[in-house]
Amino acid sequence: MKAVGLVTEYNPFHNGHIYHIQQAKAVTGADVVIAVMSGNFVQRGEPALFDKWTRTQAALANGVDLVIELPTFYAVQPSHLFAEGAIKLLTALGVEDVVFGSEHATVDFLNLAKQAPSVQGGKAFQEKNQTFAQAYATQLESETGFKLEDPNDILAFGYAKAILNLNSPIKLHAIQRVAAGYHDQSFTDDQTIASASSIRLALHKGKLEKVKGVVPNQTLVDISSANHTVDFESQFWPLLKYRLMTDTIGQLGQVYQMAEGLEHRLAAVALGEPGPQSYQSFIKAVKSKRYTFARIQRTLLYTLLNVKVDQMQAAMQDPYLRILGFTDKGQAYLNGAKKTTTLPLISKVDQHLAKANLRLDFKAGKLWQLLAREPGQQQDIARQPIHFTQAHTKEDK
Amino acid sequence: MKAVGLVTEYNPFHNGHIYHIQQAKAVTGADVVIAVMSGNFVQRGEPALFDKWTRTQAALANGVDLVIELPTFYAVQPSHLFAEGAIKLLTALGVEDVVFGSEHATVDFLNLAKQAPSVQGGKAFQEKNQTFAQAYATQLESETGFKLEDPNDILAFGYAKAILNLNSPIKLHAIQRVAAGYHDQSFTDDQTIASASSIRLALHKGKLEKVKGVVPNQTLVDISSANHTVDFESQFWPLLKYRLMTDTIGQLGQVYQMAEGLEHRLAAVALGEPGPQSYQSFIKAVKSKRYTFARIQRTLLYTLLNVKVDQMQAAMQDPYLRILGFTDKGQAYLNGAKKTTTLPLISKVDQHLAKANLRLDFKAGKLWQLLAREPGQQQDIARQPIHFTQAHTKEDK
Fold first, then answer.
1. DSSP state at residue B79
2. Do residues A374 and A252 share a domain?
3. What does the pLDDT read at residue B177?
4. Nearest chain A Cα distance for residue B280, angstroms
């Protein structure tokens, strides 16, 4: 069986994702669609709108055959590490092709990656008033003429770099992003595809009617069940404030990605009087030109999760393939992959795993439940992968 | 000027405290009444109902001349350390007499303390199914014939032991507890004095009318302002659960008074599914016969405050006299005491002190604000001691 891989967050699952799945099959002629998906927290350091099981269910109901969790230590990372983690898992599963959306689908990203500057080189890295990504893009443009600035292009570049680094046989296929830019914050009533961020914004504002045209019906059902994190900030901020006011500067300084004395600023702002009244105003108060919003938010999430540098480095050395769900076809593919994969396949998490390799995902699941309006089912211990069958689909309708 | 010392929590300030102040003056003929008072957290490991400034105001309005904060590292402790901390501060202030309520006011507690067994001795300490305090009381009874079991007697015994340990010149004066036992959970409409715990219970149930007869009017005004912690458990439990789910067992094991592997039980219960739904059910699930309710609750508070054994031991080596408020008479007494006291007198807390000696009180104040229905004013930085004058009193009426 030939498998095509997708790197996804499905936050939430929407019509654009259905188009992506259809195109992936059409472009590659694959029999099986495998999605590597962020778990309960997404790349920008936020809880996913719905938990990983709900999003797995949506993916399986709409054409994906196998959903593998991108572990938290890969998912909540800058794009190059996010991309490398995903490519590593897909390579281990024997996937031959990866199809992704891009703002510049005609660009040969693998070729671009081959010409890319090494991270340390170039004078652009001296500038203080820009983020690392901006500095890197400036350097890349001066050497190749291509301006790497759109989010899907940046991810595509990350996949290409990862393929080179890992010596992976995966072939990349870009499809042109249509209708909705990643950062578009609004959409019209006659659109059938909208960006995930604009959908989240509409849901946050309670505009369910507006969202109807751009998501499968199940997403509307899920949002009405209250087991979601649309309003997570009202829970996130008191917990973060509590953490910042009780940990020592020394403890905060050990948090993953806490760099350049950022811990001092975080503590000073959190403990100030009257102090920020919301998560958004806190981030505004601590943000500098050196960091992107997402970078700050990821660091704050790692602060909240109490993840230290050494724990993170150890975890990243030890990846695994956590199976969240499959169709019959996905199961058949898995049976073949079992014999060849070099990474451990995990279908059930017990107390031992929750304290060892999967500790970070386990903590993330517990935190997700705490941030959701209703905690719902536990996320890891004793949960079985979803086996999605056509009968099941009918039952759901 | 002759000063009498009172060891207090004023949680909340009630008519029994007025009686205590009057008796203290009558028994000793003192000119000045000095109260050492728990700060924002009380001995049983709970946030005080009102913050330390509100309670200081009530004390000054009702006959106390000087209020000194009992630092958190003394206040939130078993009774012998609580008592020793208070006696240490009162001794440093040149206080000659301490007057306290007792269930057995005719007992000579100093004499009892002289006959007391040393902590290590005796076979009663071998029993596993009792608390340390029970074991000690059993041993004491077998040697002296006196059954030390009532809470105010236990504190009195603590004062006496402290006087011996510190070689303090303080003389103890017991007054018989009247009308309300420490643990009485109810009171009748014709009572004018009720126990603090029964008053807290009535306030928790929203029975303001019932409380009118046993507290000064100001307490009723304070409860209506929402800057109080009557419902603290609904805030306390999610924060504690969050702490237990994100810290490692190693980190939890370093918390002050975390003994005999208790951290494993706390984490296992907190992370279990479905898990306790409230703070009370959590405590019930983790409590054993080896620990009193108060002991468990103090340990949980130190867990929430993230206070480690070494930090606590260092803090206890370095006590101070934090001035919360005074009358003119109290101020005059302070001016004299300044010249002779061996402990630092602190009237204003800046960022430096908040990060050094007073760090624990500072954190406790921040946590108190987080647990209160409305956070109110900040508790430490730049707060001035209350200077209470008669004009001020009139203004308040």
1. H
2. no
3. 84
4. 19
Test B367 with A246 for CB contact under 8 angstroms. Answer: yes
Number of domains in chain B: 2
Residues A184 and A81 in one domain: yes
Q: Tens digit of pLDDT for each residue in B25-60?
A: 999 999 999 999 999 999 999 999 999 999 999 999
Query: Cβ distance B277 to B233 under 8 Å?
Result: no
One domain for residues A308 and A171: no
The pLDDT of residue A190 is 83
Contact B306 A247 (CB under 8 A): yes
Q: DSSP H helical segments within A272-318, as ranges?
A: 279-286, 293-305, 309-316
Task: Say if the Cβ atoms of A370 and B239 lie within 8 Å.
Answer: no
What's the rounded mean pLDDT across residues A228-252?
A: 95
Low-confidence ranges of chain B (pLDDT < 50): 126, 393-397
User: Do A156 and A76 fall within a single domain?
Assistant: yes
Nearest to A236 by CA among A173, A183, A279: A279
Q: Report A:129-168 residues touching B (Cβ under 8 A).
A: none
**pLDDT at residue B355 in the model:** 86
Burial class (CB in 10 A: 0-12, 13-18, 19+), A373: middle
Closest by CA position to B300, among listed B288, B283, B281:
B283
Please check whether residue A119 lies inside any domain of the structure.
Answer: no
Residue finishing a domain among B314, B343, B378: B314
- Which two structure tokens, joined as six digits, stand for A312? 């993170």
Residue B271 CA to residue A381 CA, distance in Å, equals 11
Return d(Cα B125, Cα B112) in angstroms, integer.
19
pLDDT mean across residues, chain A: 91
Domain carrying residue B253: 233-314
Among B290, B314, B338, residue at a domain's last position: B314
Q: Is A241 on the interface with B (CB under 8 A)?
A: yes
Where residue A189 sits, what CATH number does that domain have? Answer: 3.40.50.620
Residues A340 and A264 both lie in one domain: no
Report CB contact under 8 Å: B242, A246: no
**Beta-strand pair A321-326/A66-70:** antiparallel
Interface of B with A in 295-354 (CB under 8 A): 304-306
**Cross-chain Cβ contact A241/B370 below 8 Å:** yes
B380: closest chain A residue by CA: A273
Indicate whether A384 belongs to any domain.
yes
Q: Does B370 touch chain A (CB under 8 A)?
A: yes
Q: How far apart are CA A170 and CA A5, in angstroms?
A: 9
Same domain assignment for residues B184 and B328: yes
Q: Do residues B343 and B251 both lie within one domain? A: no
- Closest CB from A245, A306, A378 relative to B246: A306
Instruction: Give B135's contacts (C-beta < 8 A, 6+ positions apart).
Output: B124, B125, B127
